[in-house]
Hints:
- It holds the Pfam family HicB_lk_antitox.
- InterPro entries: Arc_rbn_hlx_hlx, HicB-like, Ribbon_hlx_hlx, TTHA1013/TTHA0281-like.
- This is Type II toxin-antitoxin system HicB family antitoxin.
- By secondary structure, the protein is an alpha+beta fold.
- The chain has 4 helices and 4 strands; from the N terminus they run E-E-E-H-H-E-H-H.
- The protein has a single domain (2-133), classed as Double Stranded RNA Binding Domain (2-Layer Sandwich).
- It is 43% helix and 18% strand.
- Helix 3 (99-111) packs across helix 4.
- The longest helix is centred in the N-terminal third of the chain and has 21 residues, at 33-53.
- The chain is globular.
Amino acid sequence: MRHYIGLIHKDTDSDYGVSFPDFPGVISAGADLDEARRMAEEALALHLEGLIEDGLPIVEPSSLEAVMADPDNRRGVAILVAFKPDAKKAVRVNVTLPEEVLRQIDRFAEANGLTRSGFIARAALHEINRSDAA
């Protein structure tokens, strides 16, 4: 099990956001601190599982000292977010999408530090959670 530093951010009239200095572009949010922490664990797991599935390396977690040495990170509150590689087994699936949709997914995923699989999983869970809340 690895523990990564997540930074909680809260602006007036916003949800609690969580970012990961070791994985720029991997962000999550929740209406309260408990939800923000759960969503952060999910976002981290999806991203790392996508990296594993794509055969890409996973960086070692940075120390708290290294993370907080960056003045931009001092605006957030540091939390530890666990990643258990065996907690969820990634399953390969074959999906058919329109070519332009796939291009848009790839552009968005790359711009936000995600893999294609990580983005699709995050988007699916977002819609499921949105439907459950309705």
